[in-house]
Write a structure and sequence with these properties.
By secondary structure, this protein is of the alpha/beta class. Helix content is 32%, strand content 21%. It has one domain (2-208): Maf protein (Alpha-Beta Complex), CATH 3.90.950.10. The chain has helices spanning 10-20, 50-65, 99-113, 181-187, 189-202, 204-208; strands spanning 2-5, 26-28, 69-78, 123-133, 141-151, 167-169, 174-175. It has a 7-stranded mixed β-sheet. Mean pLDDT is 93; it is low at 205-210.
């Protein structure tokens, strides 16, 4: 089958291609499906929850293409900051530019907000919500993934993207910036959510024979 994944983020696209490698599912992204970027997309991430944003994006792109479509909304939640940056993770610092420039501004703001904070106040988690429309008129299906850790006092590693060099994974005992791609995919919020989606799309045989 062909699955449209409604993201234009180069970092997310690399991860998602890895997760679906060998699945028999052909993953395409908006540009590959002939959907040019438009101003309408700016209004698709104005919801107050990851679920609302994912659903809005998936519905929009499913209607644009007629393809089975999944969209994610994901972000970092720092408990001592009341869950910020949360749904505003990508736009938190209000920066524009390349994905790298936006990430640098967001990371700098995170370090400022937690300056001098003890380890207990640095506890955080990554969350990912997926919304799947098998057809444009279908009822949306949801999948979720999460992982816990803490925010470091300085970046470690150059891998991943976004907040990854500052996120220390409890399970890996290293930052996502230091982790190999396959290590990150195995425990990350996005890796877990998309693995659940992949199993659902592949049917009962995939679930009984992972």
């Amino acid at each position: 089958m062909k699955l449209l994944v409604a993201t234009r983020s180069p970092g997310k696209q690399k991860e998602i291609r890895r997760i679906f490698d060998g699945s028999g599912i052909e993953v395409v992204f908006p540009d590959e499906a002939g959907v040019l970027e438009s101003q309408a997309e700016v209004h698709l991430e104005l919801g107050d929850s990851f679920a609302a944003n994912a659903r809005a994006k998936a519905e929009y792109f499913a209607k644009q293409t007629g393809l089975p479509t999944v969209a994610d909304d994901s972000g970092l939640e720092v408990f001592s900051l009341g869950g910020e940056p949360g749904v505003r993770s990508r736009r938190w610092a209000g920066a524009s530019g390349t994905e790298e420039q936006v990430a640098a501004a967001n990371n700098a703001m995170l370090l400022r907000r937690l300056s001098g904070a003890p380890e207990l106040k640095r506890r955080a988690r990554y969350r990912c919500l997926l919304s799947l429309y098998r057809t444009p008129k279908a009822f949306p299906e949801s999948f979720e993934g999460a992982c816990t850790g803490r925010i470091l006092e300085e970046p470690r590693g150059t891998g991943g993207f976004g907040y990854d060099p500052l996120f220390w994974s409890d399970e890996l005992e290293k930052s996502f910036g230091e982790a190999a791609p396959e290590e990150k995919d195995a425990v990350s919020h996005r890796g877990r959510a998309f693995a659940a989606l992949r199993q659902s799309l592949q049917g009962p045989s995939a679930r009984s024979n992972p």
